[in-house]
Amino acid sequence: MMDFNRFIKLLSMLMFVLSLCMKLNSVSTAEVRCIERERQALLTFKHDLVDANGVLSSWGSEEDKRECCKWKGVSCSNGTGHVISLDLYTSPYDGLHLKAKLSPSLLELQHLNYLDLSFNDFGGSEIPRFIGSFKNLRHLRLR
Question: Which part of the chain is the Leucine-rich repeat-containing N-terminal plant-type domain (predicted)?
């Protein structure tokens, strides 16, 4: 009977330590912040946009808008904080299109693997050559 009680105590302690480790892990991943140069690149890209409908109103330099991983259309790696996805798709039916030119500032997003700028107005301009410079880009949508 004594061994069973020891086993229960040991099991309880092990469960406590595991739950503590899981809590610490979730706290550390929650603190991942976007990379400053990538945030600046996104703001430069936004500067070249005409966003008459406030589609990107969550993007900014103000204190409550500094975390670019929380911006509309931006996704970051939980492990590194690098921007890995930029999804600015707009529906062809809602009339909320962005008017833009593709800024080479996007090249700072070196870890970008998904880029969707579908149904935005680029004024009939050609796809810039720098789009071919994204080494990690796996999905590109410019419809």
Answer: 37-77
Do 81 and 27 sit in the same domain of this protein? Answer: no
Number of domains present in the structure of the chain: 2
16 and 40 both lie in a single domain: no
pLDDT for 27 equals: 41
Domain range for 75 is: 34-141
Pair 71, 135 in one domain: yes
First to last CA, the chain: 71
Model confidence band, residue 26 (pLDDT cutoffs 50, 70, 90):
very low
Residue burial 126-139, b: 16+ Cβ < 10 Å; e: rest = eeeeeeeebeeeee
The amino acid at 75: S
pLDDT of residue 95: 65
Across the chain, mean pLDDT equals 81
The pTM assigned to this predicted structure is: 0.72
Q: 55 with 101, same domain?
A: yes
Q: What is the pLDDT of residue 21?
A: 55
43 and 109 share a domain? yes
